[in-house]
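Hi F.,

I've been meaning to write this up properly since the lab meeting, where we talked about keeping a consistent format for the predictions we share between groups. The idea is simple: the sequence comes first, exactly as it goes in, then the structure tokens exactly as they come out, then a line or two of notes. No screenshots and no reformatting. I'm using this chain as the first example so we have something concrete to point to.
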Amino acid sequence: MYRKQIRRRRAVLLGLVALAFILITVTFGGGSGGFGQAVGTVTGPIGNVISDAFKPARDLIGWFDETFAARGENERLRSRLANAEAEVVAGRVAVQENRQFRRLLGLQRSGRIPSGYQPVTARITTRSPTIWITTAGIDRGSSDGIEVDDPVVSDQGLVGKVSSVAPSEAVVTLLPDGSSAVSAKVVPGGAQGVVTAKIGTTGEFVLEFIDETRGLEDGESVVTAGWREEDLASIYPPNLPIGEVKAVPIDTREAVKSVDIRPYPDFATLEYLTVLTGGSRG
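Output, unedited:
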């Protein structure tokens, strides 16, 4: 009895193996000929059942393929967008730099740089790590003719002087630094005084007059005085723009000893500076 059960199980197993070979032959061999058609007719329903049984698996595999393909395309699009945004930013920077160069060139051609000075344009490489913006490092130095106390301008006006120099770099002390003082005058009136940084502010100046002054107007220009006394002279040449009168007391009948000055240069956005080298100071 036991042996009959074993023989029956072996027969069933051999039958299943034979059926599997037939299915493979029909599927991959095209089922050509009458025998193939007959077998296909018999096994077709079984194949359909198997196909239906594996359809969810095939669909799942297809979903993974499509998902990975979509993610890859998404990454490519993001990369292209990032590159495009970088190009736009670079273009804007180039336009801004071009404008600054043009204004610097215009400053030189307009005759606002006194004769006897040789302009050397430099890029700012470092800034003071405080909100006061008191110093800036530049990428030109003594090998370019730059010396300590050379005046420094931007495309908008005076910004400071060279305070230290090395062969290929230098440090500029900017006007907002508390130690800076510039002899200046108001035009067209001619009232003279000294411009210093206004304590407790970022980028605002005050003009302390030598004598009490009347008749000032808001918006009048303040420029360097450029004084000379025998063998001594100001390190700043005359008539370099500094800023404009910001506020005058309402009652102009009263003489004033000082007024607030709004500087022309924006010290927070400086990128390029021009050092005025070779000038005579004494």
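Notes:
Residues 117-282 form a domain with the Thrombin, subunit H fold (CATH 2.40.10.340).
The first strand starts at residue 118 and ends at 127.

If this format works for you, I'll send the rest the same way.

G.
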